[in-house]
Amino acid sequence: MAKPQHHVFVCTQNRPPTHPRGSCGAKGSVAVLQAFWAEQQKRQAYEKIGITNSGCVGPCEMGANVLVYPEGILYRGVTPEDVLEIFDSHLEGGVPVERLLAPKAAW
Ligand code: FES
Question: Residue 55 Cα, ligand 1 centroid: separation in angstroms?
Fold first, then answer.
Protein backbone atom coordinates (compact mmCIF):
# COMPACT_ATOMS: atom_id res chain seq x y z
CA MET A 1 0.00 0.00 0.00
CA ALA A 2 1.32 3.44 -0.93
CA LYS A 3 1.58 6.20 1.64
CA PRO A 4 -1.42 8.51 1.04
CA GLN A 5 -0.89 12.19 0.24
CA HIS A 6 -3.76 13.10 2.54
CA HIS A 7 -5.42 11.25 5.36
CA VAL A 8 -8.97 12.22 6.33
CA PHE A 9 -10.28 11.35 9.78
CA VAL A 10 -14.04 11.64 10.26
CA CYS A 11 -15.13 11.67 13.89
CA THR A 12 -17.93 9.16 14.36
CA GLN A 13 -17.97 9.29 18.15
CA ASN A 14 -21.39 8.69 19.64
CA ARG A 15 -22.70 9.59 23.06
CA PRO A 16 -26.07 9.27 24.76
CA PRO A 17 -28.50 11.98 23.57
CA THR A 18 -28.51 13.66 26.98
CA HIS A 19 -24.72 13.90 27.22
CA PRO A 20 -23.67 17.58 27.65
CA ARG A 21 -20.92 17.42 25.00
CA GLY A 22 -23.10 15.95 22.28
CA SER A 23 -21.29 14.05 19.55
CA CYS A 24 -20.43 14.08 15.88
CA GLY A 25 -22.28 10.81 15.50
CA ALA A 26 -25.49 12.53 16.59
CA LYS A 27 -24.84 15.22 13.97
CA GLY A 28 -24.74 12.83 11.06
CA SER A 29 -21.03 12.09 10.79
CA VAL A 30 -21.54 8.50 9.64
CA ALA A 31 -23.25 9.85 6.52
CA VAL A 32 -20.27 12.20 6.05
CA LEU A 33 -17.87 9.26 6.34
CA GLN A 34 -19.90 7.29 3.80
CA ALA A 35 -19.86 10.27 1.42
CA PHE A 36 -16.06 10.42 1.68
CA TRP A 37 -15.77 6.70 0.97
CA ALA A 38 -18.17 6.95 -1.98
CA GLU A 39 -16.18 9.82 -3.48
CA GLN A 40 -12.91 7.99 -2.90
CA GLN A 41 -14.34 5.00 -4.75
CA LYS A 42 -15.72 7.14 -7.59
CA ARG A 43 -12.30 8.72 -8.09
CA GLN A 44 -10.40 5.48 -7.46
CA ALA A 45 -8.29 7.55 -5.05
CA TYR A 46 -7.32 4.71 -2.73
CA GLU A 47 -3.59 5.25 -3.19
CA LYS A 48 -3.67 9.06 -2.76
CA ILE A 49 -6.26 9.61 -0.04
CA GLY A 50 -6.80 7.65 3.15
CA ILE A 51 -10.18 7.88 4.87
CA THR A 52 -10.68 6.60 8.40
CA ASN A 53 -13.34 7.01 11.06
CA SER A 54 -12.09 8.22 14.41
CA GLY A 55 -13.22 8.80 17.94
CA CYS A 56 -13.60 12.25 19.46
CA VAL A 57 -11.09 14.83 18.21
CA GLY A 58 -12.03 17.53 20.73
CA PRO A 59 -14.53 20.27 19.83
CA CYS A 60 -17.68 18.13 19.88
CA GLU A 61 -20.05 21.09 19.85
CA MET A 62 -18.89 21.99 16.32
CA GLY A 63 -19.39 18.56 14.74
CA ALA A 64 -19.48 16.85 12.48
CA ASN A 65 -15.71 17.29 12.60
CA VAL A 66 -13.24 16.17 9.94
CA LEU A 67 -9.49 16.29 10.40
CA VAL A 68 -7.12 16.27 7.42
CA TYR A 69 -3.43 15.43 7.60
CA PRO A 70 -0.61 16.12 6.95
CA GLU A 71 -1.75 19.76 7.27
CA GLY A 72 -3.70 19.22 10.49
CA ILE A 73 -6.72 21.08 9.14
CA LEU A 74 -9.92 20.76 11.13
CA TYR A 75 -13.26 21.21 9.38
CA ARG A 76 -16.36 21.71 11.47
CA GLY A 77 -20.07 21.33 10.79
CA VAL A 78 -19.37 19.11 7.80
CA THR A 79 -22.30 17.57 5.94
CA PRO A 80 -22.34 15.01 3.12
CA GLU A 81 -22.98 17.90 0.70
CA ASP A 82 -19.58 19.41 1.60
CA VAL A 83 -17.55 16.33 0.72
CA LEU A 84 -17.28 16.99 -3.01
CA GLU A 85 -15.89 20.49 -2.37
CA ILE A 86 -13.34 19.15 0.15
CA PHE A 87 -12.19 16.60 -2.43
CA ASP A 88 -11.99 19.08 -5.31
CA SER A 89 -10.52 22.04 -3.48
CA HIS A 90 -8.37 20.52 -0.75
CA LEU A 91 -7.58 16.88 -1.36
CA GLU A 92 -7.08 17.24 -5.12
CA GLY A 93 -6.42 20.98 -5.46
CA GLY A 94 -4.39 21.67 -2.32
CA VAL A 95 -6.57 24.60 -1.21
CA PRO A 96 -8.46 24.11 2.09
CA VAL A 97 -12.16 24.98 2.11
CA GLU A 98 -12.13 28.26 4.03
CA ARG A 99 -15.83 28.35 4.91
CA LEU A 100 -15.60 25.04 6.79
CA LEU A 101 -12.45 25.72 8.81
CA ALA A 102 -12.77 25.44 12.57
CA PRO A 103 -11.99 28.70 14.39
CA LYS A 104 -8.39 29.06 15.54
CA ALA A 105 -9.48 28.96 19.19
CA ALA A 106 -10.89 25.46 18.68
CA TRP A 107 -7.84 23.98 17.00
S1 FES B 1 -17.55 13.80 19.27
FE2 FES B 1 -16.58 14.44 17.45
S3 FES B 1 -15.16 15.88 18.15
FE4 FES B 1 -15.99 15.08 19.97
Answer: 7
